What does this fold into?
Amino acid sequence: MSKGIISKDEDYSQWFNDLVIKADLAEYAPVRGCMIIKPYGYSIWEKMQAALDKMFKDTGHSNAYFPLFIPKSFFSKEASHVDGFAKECAVVTHYRLKNDGEGNIIVDEDAKLEEELIVRPTSETIIWHTYKGWIQSYRDLPILVNQWANVVRWEMRTRLFLRTTEFLWQEGHTAHATAEEAIAETEQMLDVYADFVENWMGVPVVKGRKTANERFAGALDTYCIEALMQDGKALQAGTSHFLGQNFAKAFDVKFSNKEGKLEHVWATSWGVSTRLMGALIMTHSDDAGLVLPPKLAPIQVVAVPIYKHDEELENIRTYIKGLSAELRAKGISIKFDDRDTQRPGFKFAEYELKGVPLRIAIGSRDMQNGTVELARRDTRTKETVIQEGLAAHIEQLLEEIQTNIYQKALNFRAENTVEVDTYDEFKRLLDEKPGFLSAHWDGTPETEQRIKDETKATIRCIPLNNKQEEGKCILTGKPSTQRVLFARAY
Amino acid sequence: MSKGIISKDEDYSQWFNDLVIKADLAEYAPVRGCMIIKPYGYSIWEKMQAALDKMFKDTGHSNAYFPLFIPKSFFSKEASHVDGFAKECAVVTHYRLKNDGEGNIIVDEDAKLEEELIVRPTSETIIWHTYKGWIQSYRDLPILVNQWANVVRWEMRTRLFLRTTEFLWQEGHTAHATAEEAIAETEQMLDVYADFVENWMGVPVVKGRKTANERFAGALDTYCIEALMQDGKALQAGTSHFLGQNFAKAFDVKFSNKEGKLEHVWATSWGVSTRLMGALIMTHSDDAGLVLPPKLAPIQVVAVPIYKHDEELENIRTYIKGLSAELRAKGISIKFDDRDTQRPGFKFAEYELKGVPLRIAIGSRDMQNGTVELARRDTRTKETVIQEGLAAHIEQLLEEIQTNIYQKALNFRAENTVEVDTYDEFKRLLDEKPGFLSAHWDGTPETEQRIKDETKATIRCIPLNNKQEEGKCILTGKPSTQRVLFARAY
It folds into this structure.
């Protein structure tokens, strides 16, 4: 329990919290369930945003911005949507404070809104209200828009990054002339998410569809990517919804097709959020702190000089300067930590905590020998390597680390994904060796709900391209044609 | 009045609104005073964000994120701050809606917050509450943090981009060990803003200080950059505040200095917002539409093919493909508009409206002659140029346009900045030839207020490095040592 972080094995949940705080990622705000994303945490989020934003643009999307506030009446327009979101939202009722004459600041009752405003929990309603003005003809379609924004859902139990009252996200909202095109968009964005989460974050995911119970409120079909955390709990890392014509009907959005006939528009929406930070942490990190994939690390390499005399430091500095230029030319970021207020050992621990993928330690003997000591954060191994060709070696090592942490997570998931055929075995594993449990289910919402009530496990998804096989539901014994993926989840 | 835009001379205010709507920059939302920033408008804002963000990082700042909601009590802690911001804010009082049983969605009175939350109008209070936990010693200073966020101020009269209930902005919040350092930061960020607004937006600004009346609520000193719009009204384009120890005292933020003594921390804050979009539009645009500076134009060059037969189009396409590669290598964006649903004349008008700096028209005769027609948006001039070396010519032209629109705006400002020595002349000019009026003022808030009440002109700023000269206040005739800059303002 050095660094003020409890061991994962002792208390995983506490370990996560400790790590988020100690690695300067985030902290709780004085407002219930809200968080402050600290500069170091935010710099990781910025890298995630930049990569995703480029992927969205490469697939033809543009960003736009819609209002924070949504008139209350908008929520009633799509029946299932209101049930899903009205329960947990922040309501603005007044627009002024005043001094009560005794020095207290109070709400001014003369400034009560005629219609209350809801702080957006998601923006389908206000966006489809807007699209009505943008869409007349098939020539106006498709609309491929994304928004980076904050949203608010009044959660009762909150955890940093995983479930906060306010969180940051992106929400894509597209409009199409046909169901086929909308479904293709839904699937394309699921692929974009899977690509990002696997190849940038190094987090393997299962692509699948949600059951009716777990669908987004207002969607005909919800696609998702599901990841497995180190404690065997699943985490939904992103969702992409085929909304059919539900919102177009609710907001009366029609277009005239090529034959001049009026039709309702087809819709999708898709989003990922700061929750991904939680997935990142709980996939790779260890008791020594964060482990970051090189592609998302704000600092990819740190160089720590080991010296007694200033002239030694100056020699090292000159060398690192040259190396830095070489690395930067390769697009690799390096920090030279020459603070004289901290000892090398302290710095080593700090950069381990912060998840810096590669650490260079370099002293006078190294300078004489033409070597440096390289330490990998992922494997916690060290090697002494020659300075010649170091930049190229580092470039290759960073790629290796990116691959290695993904592979490690993939192995973990393979070890913790088990086919289960009886309900007893199912319950036993959930307690003794939690992970993805692949099991037969009779396809009814009732059975799904009973399993959830009895075990806290939910159907995470019906994997895409699922193998079809005969079987019996683990709970009811009724016939089933495919296995689905169960787990307890964040 | 083609394109549905009224002439500037006829009605400047209506022209601005028409242009914002017709050029697809923004529109009003169904929520009072809120706006929807459309994809084209947002893509300009994104370019502004990217340039500013780089400047902030180059001066050592990091981004972070603080909560949208601020407990009501926080506002009472800094006395002048509450007066400035409590009057016009959105208040969250409840956290749940419910169905009243008759199909209506109503606010659930059982879900009333104990303490109301304010949607941030600015974040000094919540950030200084947070800094208390971050700062113990001089070693923790300076803190150089910026936030990109949405804020809400309940404005009674709103205009797209210029004054909206919700707007997007960045707010820098820094903490320092000494007053000198904080003042240096305040001044540095003013310089960063001036650099950005002049060299990226092409909008000349006057750097100055606000009078006590116009200061930010809670600041000891407010620095600003003021621009002059085409209708002779001023627009405050950015502010940088020296907050002294006001917020540190209000939130009890102390640090132990090198001698181990506890002192209150010194603060600055600084911000620019989507209001800059208004300044951009009202500095350069004309009756034909937007005029964008090349550095911020989402599309810098558009190529429109003029052809009758498909094979002609294919020849042109091949040529433009090669040109595009050359331009992209220079970091210049080009769009090839080969839509066959619109005629060239329609496209020309559309790209004029959207402010694309350079337009290439190219037909079969051009292909035979090895030429293209180049049209500049800023001067609305055309020239026929040879294809050889075109990429380099375009690069140079874009730089010329960037310089030219700035110079034009600078000339306009020079023509509309007048030294005035009598109150009659002052009032006459405000009505007949509005602009910056440089006049003597006796230095009292009362005189400033009376001038404002009688003429609607305010003191925009006391220019930095102002010339000291003897004079008499235009209103009271009392002695004055320097002229200040008056104008009616947005």
Summary: Chain B has a mean pLDDT of 96. Chain B has three domains: 2-284, 299-396, 417-487.
